[in-house]
Design goal:
Chains A, B: One of its GO terms (molecular function) is catalytic activity. Two copies of one chain form a homodimer. By secondary structure, chain A is of the alpha/beta class. Chain A has a single domain, classed as CoaB-like (Rossmann fold, 3-Layer(aba) Sandwich). Helix content of chain A is 38%, strand content 24%. In chain A, the strands form four sheets. In chain A, strands 7-4-1-8-11-12-13-14 form an eight-stranded mixed β-sheet, sandwiched between helices. Chain A has a two-stranded antiparallel ribbon with strand order 2-3. In chain A, strands 5-6 form a two-stranded antiparallel ribbon. Chains A and B meet through β3, β5, β6, α4 and β10 of A and β3, β5, β6, α4 and β10 of B. β3 of chain A pairs antiparallel with β3 of chain B, so a sheet runs across the interface.
């Protein structure tokens, strides 16, 4: 069991784009290593588990990427530099406000004899200007690095590399593990090479993905502030499951939430306590996001954590 | 076996938004029933098969929605009215050109003492103006109706309703079934209510989804021009599988494509013949899309089909 995760890595080859992503992570870390800027790695979106080597079908985990992409914006507001590690095509910070046809519906086409121009309609300018200003500032200041994954294998390889490269930031670094990572997978030697024929019913055997929080907390980023998420559908299990994870992996915080109301309510569970954050009806009505309050809380806890470490040393 | 699909519908309750979608389909059909406008129902994107009633995990089918969303634009170019029935968050016509951060990267923020404005950068105006013009025209002329689904159950309910409501258009109507629909499902009584615990390996039993092309062609839209798609990963099976589908369901055309090169090459298979459409390297280089050629071909075949029907009557 101890080397479970090592076996997992050795049986899944490293993704083709990993070294390129590692180069980007090294540049990003170097930029923020000496200085006061705090750093957070946000993971976001679901991971896939292919059923076939030539993948037509896959098992996926529910996650639009709302939590991770919204939280990234709020961390940037607090001055953090963010590595946003997200599922391909899940929501991204800033552009998340203008998905699908929303963006085209905000544009006016102006055709005159002098030529054609395209502008944002006046009623949409305040919102888009605010988003655009923040987005351009994050890029200009080198504060946002976006990396992506699709399968659970790509996720795990990229996560390990990111941890190892960010590790020198020590207590300045938060890991905010909001991605919905598959707990199950199909070993490569049990996968069909081609699309499974739809001629008869099928049985799929799923093995357990090793719990990666164990090496992450104890080996890869032993000095970072690690926050994990727990999503359940049965409220009787939620807090016990969160506490169980804290006892097992010895990290700082679990953000526990229910599928049914994860955008309105979360419970922040630490070794010592638990604390509920819940949007009021009025806060929801005026469009406030719970991620603003979650991130504010994490930033305060991170501040205490850094002060505590400095006091000790 | 004959009533297989009827049992399937009776064991999966109708989606909450179905009547609203049926109203939109009725308005759309009424608008185009008397007149020369031809109509196409385009299905697009993958369908999900939930593993739990409170769904955290699901099986999905590979499809970004490129084929369906691109084809929709080309059908509109040919004067067709389009019902675009797509997976929630898959690519949509027009906005598909500006996904993720692409759109924010095209905008300039201009802040002066007179106020703030946001414009599209000059180098991006030609492309966006062209897309915007077509999008606004399609909406203004009532030529585009967008409906969405997520699960295979929602897809099948919506597809049947759409067929039944579009049926009076007879031979004026094309069904262009580009969605990647699950061949498998889990019967409701075998599904877990809550999120499956990740404490031990799992086995999932998948049953066959009934082949809906059978009632669709023979009962729901017996006079329409029906085009289905066949995606394979093994080229030795591709054409045989397409021919097999045509023999079984008696529709007009199968567009056969390989996962590995579906954006460069397709084979149009009819009862009598098969015909390859393949982009040249030069066509790919200048950004041409294979859907332009596929749709042109289908529109010609639809024209012949209508002429043939009129000749007979």
């Amino acid at each position: 069991m101890a080397s479970n995760w090592e076996e997992f890595y050795s049986s899944h080859p490293q993704p083709a784009n990993l070294s390129k992503n590692e180069d980007l992570l090294r540049d990003f870390t170097a930029r923020h290593l000496n200085g006061d800027t705090r750093v957070v790695l946000v993971t976001s979106g679901g991971t896939t588990v292919p059923l076939e080597h030539n993948t037509v079908r896959f098992v996926d985990n529910f996650s639009a990427g709302t939590r991770g992409s919204a939280s990234t914006e709020y961390f940037l507001d607090h001055g953090y530099a963010v590595v946003f590690m997200h599922r391909v095509k899940s929501l991204q910070p800033f552009s998340r406000h203008f998905t699908g046809q929303k963006f085209l519906n905000m544009l006016d086409l102006i055709e005159t004899k002098d030529g054609t121009s395209v502008t944002v309609t006046s009623e949409n300018i305040p919102k888009i200007a605010d988003v655009l200003r923040k987005y351009k500032s994050a890029l200009a200041n080198g504060k946002l690095l976006e990396l992506s994954f699709t399968t659970v294998y790509e996720y795990l390889w990229l996560l390990r590399s990111a941890c190892q490269i960010l590790a020198p930031l020590k207590e300045k670094c938060i890991l905010y593990l909001a991605a919905a990572v598959s707990d199950f997978y199909i070993p490569p030697n049990e996968m069909s090479v081609h699309k499974i024929a739809s001629t008869k019913p099928q049985t799929i055997s799923l093995q357990l993905v090793p719990k990666i929080l164990a090496p992450l907390v104890s080996l890869w980023v032993p000095n970072a502030f690690v926050v994990s998420f727990k999503l359940e559908t049965n409220k009787d299990l939620l807090i016990d499951k969160a506490r169980e994870a804290l006892n097992k992996y010895k990290h700082k915080l679990v953000i526990a939430n229910m599928l049914q109301n994860y955008r309105q309510k979360v419970t922040l569970v630490t070794q010592q306590s638990s604390y509920v954050i819940e949007l009021t009806t009025e806060q929801s009505r005026i469009g406030e996001e719970i991620e603003m309050y979650i991130v504010k809380n994490i930033v305060d806890k991170h501040e205490e954590f850094i002060a505590d470490r400095s006091g000790r040393s």
